[in-house]
Amino acid sequence: MTEFEKYFTAIYDGKITACKKMRLQSERMLNALTSPDKYHFDIDIANRHIDFIERFCCYPSGDKMGKPFTMELFQKARLQALFGFVDDNNKRQYNECLIIEGRKNGKTSETGAVEIDMLCNDSEGSPQIYNLATQREQATLGFNACYKMIQKSPFLRKHIRKRASDLYFSHNFGYIKALASETANLDGLDVHCAVIDELAAIKNRDLYDLIKQAMGARSQPVLFTITTNGFVRNGIFDAQYEYAAKIISGKVQDEHFLPFIYELDSPEEWEREDCWIKANPGLGSIKSYDYLRQMVSKAKADPTFKPTVLVKDFNLKENPQSRWLTYEEAYNGDKIPKYAYRYFIGGMDAADSVDLNAATAIFQKPGDDKIYVKSMFWIPQSVIDEQDEKGSRDGRDHVPYKLWIEQGLMRTYPGAKVDKRVFLDWFCELRDNEDIYPMIICYDPWHISDDLLRAFENEFGKKTMRAVRQGVITLSSPMKDLKADLKEHRIVYDDNPIMLWCLLNTDVKADINGNIQPCKSDKSTQRIDGTAALLDAYVGYCDVRVNYLAMI
User: Which residues of 505-521 are buried (b: 16+ CB within 10 A; e: fewer)?
Assistant: First the structure.
C-alpha cells in the first residue's frame, strides 16, 4: 500500500483524527485513485520526486541539521498526490497546491526540498524557481533554507552553486531565486515553480497574480504554498482559503488546484489535546506535544497571547487582542430573509468625504429577535483611478474595492471626495424601491451641513432626524450591548464583507471608569466607517426600541 493510500485511508476511516475539511479531501483523493477519469495515479512518477528528496536533501536546521531529509507519512502522501496524478501523456494534473497547517510542522524543510527537486529532477529546461514574499528579507529566509540544504548534501553542493542572486544548476541552466513584491521589475518571468512559505503575511495579491500568469509558457508548472492562518483579513489568504474550501466541499470545480486545510473545527477544541492534531499533522513527530502544551498554557494565562496561538497553532481566524471584537464574534454568514419589512432605523458615518463613507439601515420582523442590517458604502472615484494607474488589484487599503463595487456592495462618486447627499439618495432608494420607511435616521451633528440636514428633514420630516453625539456618554452602553448582540449572532448584516472588515478593524478607547467608544487603529488603511454607521443606528434603536417593536 502506498503512503498516499495509507494516509488518506487512515483519515477517512477515523484512525487519524482530522478536521472536517481534511476528511472530505481524503475522500476526494481516494475517489480519484479508485475511479480514474482524465487523470490517473502513477506511483512511479510520484515516488521519483519522493526518492530524490530523501536521497539528496538534508535538514537545513535544528538537531537534525545535515542529516538526510526523511519525510513523514503526511508529507509523502501530499507530494504523491501533487506529483502522481497525470494524464495519458504523463503531464501533471495539479499546477497549484495550497497547504494550510499550524506552525512548526516542518514546512520550511518541505518547501526547500520541493524547490530543489523542481530545479534538478523535473525534466524541465532552464527552470526558474522562486521563493515569494512581500518583503525581500522574508523571501530570503526560504532561499537561505534551500542553500543550507544544498550545502549539507555532498551531491547537491557539487552541482548547484551560489551566485550573487540565485542558486544555479548548470546541467539545465535553471536557478532558485528569492522574489519580493518590492522588486523593481517583475515582468518577463518564466516561472516553472514558485513557493510561498507564508501566504497569510502577503497583503497585496499582485505578486501572486503575476506569478500565476508567468507560468503560462511552462507545460506543467507548480505553485506550492504552505502557510498558517494570519491576522490580515480580506487579503490573498482569505481569498485562497475560501476558494480551497469551496473546492473541497464540491461547490467549485477546479481539477488543477490541490488543497489541504488542517484546522480545528471549532474554537472550543483548542484546549482539547486530542484535537490538536487536526491543525498539526506533524504533531508528535516534527512538532512536540510539550511545545504545544507550553503555548496553550501561556495563552490561558496571558489573554494577549491567545489570539496568536489560535491563529498560528490551530489555524482559527482571529483578531488581534487590541480589537473590539474577535473574529468569531464579528463574523456572521447569515443572509437577510425575504420579508415585507416596513420600518428601519438609519445610521450614517460622514466623517471623511475623501475616504470611505457608510450608511446603514437596521430593521426587524415580528417574533424574531434578530436585527437585520442593510449597508451601502461609497468611495471617491479618484481612489479607483489611482489604483488603476498603479496597476494594483488590491487598492490603497489592501482590500478589493473594485470587486466590491462590481458586486454592488459599494459605489463610487465622481472626483476626489464624496458628496454627502449620497446618504439621502440611498435612504430614498430604500423607501421608493423597497417600500421600507425610516422611523428615525441617526447622524453625527459635527459632520453634516445645515443644508443637508434641511434636505433630510424636507424628505422625511424633522422628527425623523436624530443627532447622536460622539463620545463615551452616548456610545458606551450601546456599544457594549451591540457587542453582546454580535457575539450572540443576533446582528445579521447579510454576510457583507465590507461590514465585517470594518467590525474587525475597530479598536476600543476606554476611560478610567470603563466607558468605551470606537476608535481607529494606528494603521490608516483599517477603516471603521461601517462600524460607526452601524453604531449610530444602534444607538437610535436602543432609544426607540419599545416604540419600534410596537410599530412593526
Answer: bbebeeeeeebbbbebe
